[in-house]
Amino acid sequence: MRSQPDGTACLCRALARPESMTELSPRQWEGTVAAARETSLLGTLWHLAVLAGIHGQLPTKPAQHLLGGYRLSQHNAEALRWELQILDQGLLTKLPPAIALKGAAYLLAELPNAPGRVANDLDLLFPRDQVEQAESLLFFEGWNTTHHDEYDQRYYRQWMHELPPLQHHKRGTTLDLHHNILPETFKVRTDATPLITQATSVPGSWRFKTLAPTHLVLHSVVHLFSETEWDRGLRDLYDIHTLVTHFVSQQGDSFWSKLLDEAEQLRIGWLLERAIACCQARLLTPVPNEAQQHLKAHALSKPFQAANRQLFLHGLNTRNSHTPRTDALARGLLFLRGHYLKMPLPLLTRHLFHKAFLAKEPETPQSDDRGPETHG
User: Fold this and answer.
1) Does residue 205 sit in the same domain as residue 265?
2) How far apart are CA 100 and CA 212, in angstroms?
């Protein structure tokens, strides 16, 4: 007999059907709150409860946790908006408008997954021939690189889709400058030109742009399904689910046709297939039959498909699940998969050997403690 409810399952039900929060038992709430805290979804649950008009029906203690998470997200959004205002009025005005990515994009575009969301850093996209110029301009505004090791610098500048992360010397904010959405050494090469030329303006007087709707979804897809770290995978999956359902509500099923076409153009239809399958399984994302048939062309053959699905679904689980050992194994395999996708095997072997045996210990602790493999 299982002694503890599956917090991951309860959290997924709450995200897919917020009304289910009124049906949770006290013990189910314990697992749900723990899973939501682990994945930075407490504020999102409160926002969904308010939208559903059920926030007044929630038990006092869980409601306090959710409301606290939401207030934290509001503070985070204010800080992010302030950072964006400073950048929007600074030396970056010497370049064409930057394209905000991920949390910054959701905030600026006022998308439905923004309320309650906590962004860990700030991400901007520039054309390849402008990204280092943007970095140089930012140096004059108090931004410093966080990776001084010669190997790490080469790792980013030669092989990755972004420069080494910057950190403001006073405010401590982390800023990632991208020139693509996938590494140069990834399994497939993605042309960033359409991402930049099709970028759209945002409400208000901002200079910043965001990716076009289809590209917003696809960037969320590649951000999660090419990753090595899945600690907040459920939050990223919720981003995909919410963006898809939002744009379909605006554009109808024609959005699916555009999304599938863009995925083929960018050569990432196989990643979209994995993402949508997980969205359906975890968050009950509605997908029209025609889109499902199209995505099937990218599914693995039957002997491997079920195992592949379980790999992702277990990787998405939080520590509050009934299968902790299987989940840990899945995350380990996803870690290896992410590295394998990012680099050809000879280059990956050389890279891992260097990090294991040749990398120098940092002289002083750095606030940005992400390794070169972790981005976003």
Assistant:
1) yes
2) 11
